[in-house]
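Hi Q.,

Before the meeting this afternoon, I wanted you to have the D-xylitol-5-phosphate prediction in hand. No need to reply - just skim if you have a minute. The sequence and ligand are here:
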Amino acid sequence: MPASLIAPSILASDFSRLGDEVADITRAGCDWIHCDVMDGDFVPNISFGAPIVEASSRHTNLPLDVHLMIQRPDRYLEQFLGIRGVESVTSHLEANHDAGITLDRTRAAGKKAGLSIKPGTPLDQARLLFGRFDILLVMTVEPGFGGQPFMTDMLGKIREAARLREDLGLGFQIEVDGGINVETAALCREAGADVMVAGTSVFKAADRAAEIRKLRG
Ligand code: DX5
Ligand code: ZN
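Predicted structure with the ligand bound:
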């Protein structure tokens, strides 16, 4: 089984030392920096917006992986697409008027286009969009907060996504987000996930580099 890519979520970092935190996980050997943008509308929590993503970009050369948990992401897409270092922008199927247009605009800007689905959204609802995204972000907790337990029943959705990807001959990456630790990362990898988002497990680890190595498998 190939090793996974590890994308620590800065939501779990110490915001008062954001630059140092981003530099530290970069040195610790992660692959992407995951930025969780929340609007207090699509999810019941507010995190940060484009200025914090831009500030993070000045402390790493790694790709920034933006996860928009905002209603009507098309309204703010350009702000994020314009940040140097942002290589992927993912938004929610449930939050878009027309997710296909958001995905197309993201690709047109030369970035990877991501589509995310909440735990209660069946993969079937994304069927018409297959071929138009580069990343499928399967939420393994209800979006809104870090530190929640992994929903084991999402493993079936990951397997289904991996199977469909193969059947349709597509090359998108499967990313999982929420409650990822060394044990749940191994389960997701077996189910076919390629990219592990990990907030709490990386930022609260005594040895972040060792944690990233273990998460990678
Ligand atoms: C949840 C966010 C996640 C979250 C992950 O809405 O999308 O990225 O920060 O945090 P942990 O790893 O602590 O579950
Ligand atoms: Zn996220």
